[in-house]
């Protein structure tokens, strides 16, 4: 291949990546908007009722099953193995090999998922009191019914996960971008049109309908792309070794993610002993906290990951430390500003988004308290997103998993101590404390591998960020409180308080000499300008 050919190949690959990125971005935006709409519709209909507590609790079982069957661990393990199968040998044989391997993986996931679902449904009456020991006996019976319905979901989503990775390796991204939005739309429709006497049973069936849509969209596109299920033993030939490689790659992440889900099961059990509505408010708060975490921390970490991997593979520890340090600082600054915003204006935002019909002032107060307890850990959660990618770039999955499992044990222990004293806020604080400890320990481990990645001035930066966050929060809260005294509606308090917070953050960046805050502001301004340009 000539230099010109290689250059053309790189340009074609780059264009393909850009197109795929745009498609996935559009799908992510649509999915997040629908997710927000789902929470708005569900909150209006069910508020923070005890029935919604049961629905949230029941979801812990399929979430755990999905993690064990597939989850993110399967996707990250399938892609490299599928890619190897596709690109080994000539194009036609590679496609055939990929189709057989994807079909075998689909059968395995379908079989394991079905067995787990059947076991869960059989023992739902036993799982219900173990999961929600604090619920009344009749509520536990309803919880068991919800678990039986929702256990269909991981079978459908797990199968769809295999098809999605098959399509991605074949360079097809439209269906994988659309499918998550279709899944969420099923829940939205159920919440809007289901009869009142069904309660959250209607949401559970909406989940199954959405999961069926998710799988159906992927299955149609996969079938058109050449995917077939193996129907004879000969079609499974040669798939054993690749499937074992998939299991080897996904095992560490599956253990880590399983520990997270088990900690959620444990804290759900704790919440079942609290008054009605506490578990539902925690669920709303978690979804809201994920908005800044996903928009800033996860986006920045994912964008930096290829650079981390390239520098690590080249053995450039100084370069990796420099890029990692800059990314960590920017993410920490963004999370500190987000924390300030939540502390100052979280209640106003919750009232604007959810404050209608069944979601009254008590629901607003409960959710706002839960949101602050979760948000205390936002800087740690954001830093962890970057630290995880740094560790994965160094091909170290063991250290993050071991530390993460220990952190989840701390989460459960702290929540067990605090929940009886301060209620559902103690459950949120337990996770925040655990995440902070996890970030510190993983930071120490990374510093040994990549000296200087956290910088000599890390403690100073952290202190300045605390000061900047406090100043920003005070500015936003002061404006909101003043307007509240004048009887202004929540939307006005949120908008003007947000503007005051932004001014406070700008002043704080100058006063405390934090260039990372300016970088975050510049990135936001650039994005707004790009969106404002005519096509």
Proportion in β-strands = under 5%
- Give Rg in angstroms: 24 Å
Helix-strand topology string: HHHHHHHHHHHHHHHHHHH
Uncertain ranges: 1-17, 232-238, 531-535
Query: How many angstroms separate the termini?
Result: 38 Å
Query: What is the approximate shape?
Result: globular
Helix fraction bin:
over 70%
Number of strands: 0
Largest sheet: none
Number of helical segments with 4 or more residues: 19
Structural class: mainly alpha
Mean pLDDT: 82
Report on the architecture of this protein.
- There is one protein chain.
- This protein has helices at residues 3-46, 50-69, 71-87, 91-122, 124-131, 137-150, 152-169, 174-193, 201-224, 240-271, 278-313, 317-354, 361-375, 378-393, 398-422, 424-449, 458-485, 490-511, 515-532.
- It has 535 residues and is an all-alpha fold.
- Helix 11 (278-313) packs antiparallel against helix 12 (317-354).
Q: What structural keywords apply?
A:
535 residues; mainly alpha; 19 helices; disordered N terminus; disordered C terminus
Describe the structure concisely for a colleague:
The chain is mainly α and 535 residues long. It has a domain at 18-251.
List the helices and strands and how they pair.
Layout: H1 3-46, H2 50-69, H3 71-87, H4 91-122, H5 124-131, H6 137-150, H7 152-169, H8 174-193, H9 201-224, H10 240-271, H11 278-313, H12 317-354, H13 361-375, H14 378-393, H15 398-422, H16 424-449, H17 458-485, H18 490-511, H19 515-532
Helix pairs in contact: 1-8, 2-3, 2-4, 2-6, 2-7, 2-10, 2-11, 3-4, 3-7, 3-10, 4-6, 4-7, 5-6, 6-9, 7-9, 8-9, 10-15, 11-12, 11-13, 11-14, 12-13, 12-14, 12-17, 12-18, 12-19, 13-16, 14-16, 15-16, 17-18, 18-19
């Amino acid at each position: 291949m000539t230099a010109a050919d290689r250059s053309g190949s790189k340009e074609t690959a780059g264009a393909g990546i850009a197109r795929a990125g745009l498609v996935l971005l559009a799908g992510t935006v649509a999915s997040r908007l629908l997710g927000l709409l789902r929470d708005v519709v569900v909150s209006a209909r069910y508020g923070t009722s005890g029935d919604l507590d049961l629905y949230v609790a029941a979801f812990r079982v399929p979430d755990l099953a999905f993690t064990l069957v597939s989850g993110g661990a399967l996707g990250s393990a399938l892609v490299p193995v599928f890619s190897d199968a596709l690109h080994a040998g000539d194009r036609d044989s590679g496609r055939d090999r990929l189709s057989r391997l994807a079909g075998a993986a689909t059968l395995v996931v379908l079989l394991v998922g079905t067995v787990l679902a059947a076991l869960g449904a059989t023992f739902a009456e036993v799982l219900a009191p173990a999961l929600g020991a604090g619920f009344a006996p009749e509520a536990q019976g309803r919880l068991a019914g919800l678990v039986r319905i929702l256990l269909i979901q991981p079978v459908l989503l797990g199968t769809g996960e295999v098809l999605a990775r098959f399509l991605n390796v074949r360079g097809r991204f439209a269906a994988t971008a659309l499918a998550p939005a279709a899944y969420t739309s099923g829940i939205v429709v159920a919440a809007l049109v289901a009869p009142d006497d069904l309660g959250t049973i209607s949401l559970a069936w909406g989940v199954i309908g959405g999961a069926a849509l998710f799988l159906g969209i992927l299955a149609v596109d996969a079938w058109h792309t050449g995917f077939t299920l193996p129907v004879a033993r000969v079609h499974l030939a040669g798939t054993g070794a690749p499937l074992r490689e998939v299991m080897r790659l996904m095992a560490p992440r599956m253990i880590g993610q399983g520990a997270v889900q088990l900690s959620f099961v444990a804290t759900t059990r704790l919440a079942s002993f609290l008054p009605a509505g506490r578990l539902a408010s925690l669920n709303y708060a978690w979804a809201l906290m994920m908005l800044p975490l996903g928009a800033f921390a996860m986006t920045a970490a994912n964008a930096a990951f290829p650079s981390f991997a390239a520098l690590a593979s080249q053995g450039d520890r100084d370069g990796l430390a420099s890029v990692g340090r800059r990314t960590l600082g920017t993410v920490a600054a963004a999370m500190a500003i987000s924390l300030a915003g939540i502390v100052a204006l979280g209640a106003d935002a919750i009232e604007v988004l959810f404050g209608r019909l069944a979601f009254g002032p008590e629901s607003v107060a409960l959710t706002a308290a839960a949101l602050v307890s979760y948000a205390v850990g936002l800087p740690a959660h954001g830093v962890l997103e970057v630290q995880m990618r740094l560790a994965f770039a160094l091909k170290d999955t063991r250290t993050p998993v071991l530390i993460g499992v220990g952190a989840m044990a701390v989460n459960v222990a702290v929540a067990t101590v605090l929940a009886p004293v301060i209620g559902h806020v103690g459950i949120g604080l337990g996770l925040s404390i655990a995440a902070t400890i996890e970030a510190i320990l993983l930071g120490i481990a990374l510093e040994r591998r990549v000296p200087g990645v956290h910088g000599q001035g890390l403690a100073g930066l952290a202190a300045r960020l605390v000061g900047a966050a406090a100043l920003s929060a005070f500015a936003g809260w002061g404006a909101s409180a003043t307007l509240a005294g004048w009887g202004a509606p929540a939307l006005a308090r949120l908008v003007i308080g947000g503007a005051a917070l932004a001014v406070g953050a700008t002043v704080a960046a100058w006063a405390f000499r934090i260039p990372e805050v300016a970088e975050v502001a510049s990135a936001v301004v650039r994005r707004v300008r790009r969106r404002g340009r005519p096509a």
